[in-house]
Amino acid sequence: MSAVIRYIDKPHPVTGLTNAKLGIWLFLASEVMLFGALFSAYILLRVTADDWPHGSDLLNVKLATINTVILISSSVTMVMSWAACQLRNIGKFRLYLGLTIALSCAFLVIKFFEYQPKFSHYEVFMKDGSSMTGHLKANDGKANDGKADDEESAYIMFIPDALQLHDESDAAHHGESLAHDDHGQSKE
Question: Beta strand 131-139 with 121-125: parallel, antiparallel or unpaired?
């Protein structure tokens, strides 16, 4: 006995929907509920937090803006590719699909540069139970000219974030390093 799936091509007489359209509407309803719950949790966390960091302090706004433009442009080129395929214009289909793939590669490259610093950012737990966040800096034991130096000079150094220095004595001790950025340039 074979099963028959009804209402694939013809709408159901009561709902007026095909199975595919009903499935898409159910999927969209589930997405609205999921993201509604996530945004509600975010709003509650943000409202009840004593201190909330600004996004521009943690993320590169210029790269994020460029990536947003690339993402929207790739959506447009994908729709144009689909429309060209529907019109059986294979030349334009290939052009727009190629642009979509190129934009997706550009998106991933920018994401790599945007999040690369996050891969070397760590949280270190102290003996007293407190924690600090910062970056690791490694020296492989080679001199600046690339020749092997003393192997014992290889090290990994933890550089704490400036925002973690709450104590005035810590700020005075690290004052010189706080007055310069990662490239040794003065912040002023």
Answer: antiparallel
Rounded Cα gap, residues 98 and 5, in angstroms:
37
* Pair of tokens at residue 22: 């009903």
What span, in angstroms and rounded, lies between the C-alpha atoms of 24 and 31?
11
Burial class (CB in 10 A: 0-12, 13-18, 19+), 21: middle
Both tokens of 10, joined, read 């013809």
How far apart (Å, rounded) are the C-alpha atoms in residues 13 and 7? 9
pTM exceeds 0.70: no
The predicted-structure confidence for 96-131, as pLDDT tens digits, reads as follows 999 999 999 999 999 998 887 777 677 777 788 787
Q: How many CB atoms lie within 10 A of CB 96?
A: 21
Distance CA 160, CA 166 (A): 12
* The two structure tokens encoding residue 47: 């409202």
Give me the sheet containing 121-125, strands edge to edge: 121-125, 131-139, 155-160
